[in-house]
Prior knowledge:
- Helices cover 36% and strands 18% of the residues.
- The protein is α+β, with helices and mostly antiparallel strands.
- The chain has a 4-stranded antiparallel sheet with strand order 1-2-8-3, with helices on both faces.
- Strand 9 (213-214) and strand 10 form a beta hairpin.
Amino acid sequence: SKDKEKKMKEKPDLTQEVKDFTLECGADIVGVASIDRFDGAPDGFHPTDVMNSTKSVITFARKFIMGILDELAPGRQRLSYKHHMYAHKNTYNTFTGYDIARFLEKRGFKAFVIQPTTPYYAHEFRGVMSHRHAAIRAGLGVFGKNNLVLTREFGPRQRFCTVLTDAELVPDPLIEKDLCMDCNTCREGCPVQAWDPKSGIFYKPVCAHHQNWNRADQECKQPCG
């Protein structure tokens, strides 16, 4: 029908509009995944478990400030890392997610923002949906040996946020190339060796207990960076 043809023609235009708007809001990279790319997600952690009508998943990221990473040390530098790599960046990404959701709702679509970090299940060491898996399915990067997403632009140095929508957007191509340099520096430098040396499985509790996040004063005693 003519209505269907019009809708299909508008889809690429809407996708580009969403991406342009996301970058205008301050994000450094953005990608789109179709809902079929999440087949096999754990029960309860699929995008449709959060918003049943989800058809597309938008993931974006803000890059880290390299000067702070290079000078990571106890004291003021560590506090700057906590604020600018986590707290403030989480806030900026959440605001951007909110703006994207409003952008879509004004065009008649439904949207749901999954903000960074919270909400999460502390005993399982995972959130309601994985931003990292969403980023990979949106064509932004691949997993490295450090269990982080490596992007072409920034390696592992960014923080992600995700927006679900019932708008049918055009998905980005997946990255087929392995971006990991296979130098093994991340695993060799891990202070608690949180990986199984044979299988490569990453042990989240080991990592979390080492970092010793104090919820009373909101201070991480041993941030790895």
